[in-house]
Design a protein that fits this description.
Layout lengths: L9 H11 L1 H13 L33 H13 L36 H13 L8 E7 H6 L5 H4 L3 E2 L5 E3 L13 E2 L4 E7 L10 E5 L13 H4 L3 H5 L10 H15 L6 E5 L29 H6 L2 E2 H10 L6 H9 L10 H25 L1 H4 E2 L16
Helix pairs in contact: 1-2, 1-3, 4-12, 9-13, 11-13, 12-13
Length: 396
Amino acid sequence: MSRKTLAWANKEVETFLCILGEDDVVYDVYAAAAAIDIRPTIKERAGATMEVEAQPTTPPSSSPRASSTSIIASQLWRRSRKIRDEALGGRNNTTCGQTREQETPPDFFYFSDFERHNAEIAAFHLDRILDFRRVPPVAGRLVNMTREIRDVTRDKKLWRTFFISPANNICFYGECSYYCSTEHALCGKPDQIEGSLAAFLPDLALAKRKTWRNPWRRSYHKRKKAEWEVDPDYCDVVKQTPPYDRGTRLLDVMDMTVFDFLMGNMDRHHYETFEKFGNDTFIIHLDNGRGFGKHSHDEVSILVPLSQCCRLRKSTYLRLQLLAKEEYKLSSLMEESLLRDRLVPVLLRPHLRAMDRRLRLVLQVLASCVEKEGHGNVVEEDLTGDTTTLRSPGHR
């Protein structure tokens, strides 16, 4: 993937680069996208010590004459509404969350799980290794909350959410629909914090996106089950329902299912596509922060779409078989790829080994499908370049 390939994101990339310094970050993001081992040549600024002020002294100016650095915080927070909860769980988080060594507590529901910045980073690398290429470029970064956010923002609402914690650390919580409160603030040590940076998709005014409810969405209820959890023939209904009754949308969902299972992500309630292309489009793999929470547990219910529908692209099937071979082992490729990120180690070895174990489970499900339905009815040819030969999803 070249810089030219990323032209769709240039405007947004330039926007978020302002806050962190273009020289520092541009190489990280594009190198990750291109899978090239490029390291910034300038001196790392994140390690500089900062004197923590007792209180922010001057509110941000609303003057239109602002530097490129001043522009970012306002635009960043209007676009994303927060630097997500992905920073929770970072090595520099002092309030709550999850460190790399910790697993999600067993009593947590999937909808109460933490958002992990390292999961977003790892998801981008996994998506690329699987050759889906549907996750926008993501890179890890150590951010100075005082110098790179608070002191440069023109957003007064954001500025007012900064405070000093009892431990004398800089904290803020921003504005968003959920978890934006003092109790869920992001705190640095004293003002350094890890985060993941993602290249923004084109502005909605330029490229509208459509949000779709995932047919295999969970109930998000402590006691209720979703229909697919109680009906083993649920996929037959989905295959007769637009947009899954034609084209490649159902196969896209199967790819997403494999992707989520390898990460252990149970939080795929909706997905997005570009509206302009109608059903001749692809699913954008956004919002992966609840992956990689448990390495000791494989949530096989994530694989239900695959086991119920027994359909997968041939290209995906061959890629999974390749990654199961010792010389192309998924965990080894992930470990090597993640070494390019600044926040190494992004994943600890137990999570890497868990992906190998889960890959074997995916292949077992596919083997069972092939035995039951026949190879030709399970593995969908997509390597000939002739999309007119694709069967309808309901074909058997």
